[in-house]
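Q: For a teaching handout, I want to show students what a protein-ligand complex looks like in token form. Below are the inputs, and the small molecule is fe (ii) ion. Please produce the holo structure.
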Amino acid sequence: MALVEDTADPKHNLQAARQAYYERISKYDMAPLWEKLRELVGSEPKTQCAPAIWRFRDVKAMVMESAELISAKEAERRVLVLENPALRGQSRITQTLYAGLQLIMPGEIAPAHRHTASAIRLIIDGNGAYTSVEGERTYMSPGDFVLTANWTAHDHGNTSGRPMIWLDVLDLPTVNFFESMFAEHLDDETQTVRHQDGDSAAFFASGVLPDGAQVSALQSGKLSPVVNYTYARTRSAIAPPTAPFSCASRARAQRGSGTRNSPGAPATYSSRRHGNTIRTPRSVSQCCSRSPTGPPRKRSGSGGRSIEHICRRRSGAPVPLRWRNGGTHET
Ligand SMILES: [Fe+2]
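A: Here is the structure, written as tokens, with fe (ii) ion included.
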């Protein structure tokens, strides 16, 4: 301190003294917290992610083109990763989630493996390819929501005559953050089918259990045991096809009955007793009215951003998606 007071430019010398100090302690792999404190602990949440939209009509041709360059077997998973524009090169769509469009052509197999990351899949295009999860082979249709919980064996195959595309979302960045990501490849390319299509939904989601079923086993896990939340069932939950219900009237009815639903009546995919279907991403399905009303909402969850996936429109009109920062995007 004496050094500073004795000089003509104490401010300059204080800075120089600090810098010299920082350099000395840096050799011991130490750094002053006070230089980073405001950056580390801000006054409000901040995200590096940027809002972005991938229109299927724009990207489908590029996804299809990948089939001419590499087979599903060679790629293991033929996927185009959706990278957040602010996080390019990091294979992530938000800070905590990976997303990609997977293509499987007729006759192809994506071989069986399992890994510590969990996956959710939203089926976009095509009909009749399957995903096998722990021996249950489910055939997929647009709008279906398929679960692959962490460390469950899974493979994909396309026995239909058409290409099939779906959106994969994995908690890869989260698992990588904990340095706990790894995978195992199974000996056989495809799993032996041990359960027929729809078995898990019939058993765990019907509201009825066979006499003598091991209820305690159902309660012990924190993951949903249902492999495929089919769109046919989801749609009836968010917008029953019969009058007088529309998306908006459904929302009003649910709010009126005390259900804590915001406009649009989103329905959460949930396990039987434990909330989210799998531990990390929260997944909701929502019926959007033609002209959604209400203020833009800030989404919680993955890096302050959500991944929206529009799988079907009831009308041909575009549905505006509004972001809190004022930008407007149309699907
Ligand atoms: Fe996988």
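A: Two things your students might notice: The radius of gyration is 25 Å. The chain has a mean pLDDT of 79.
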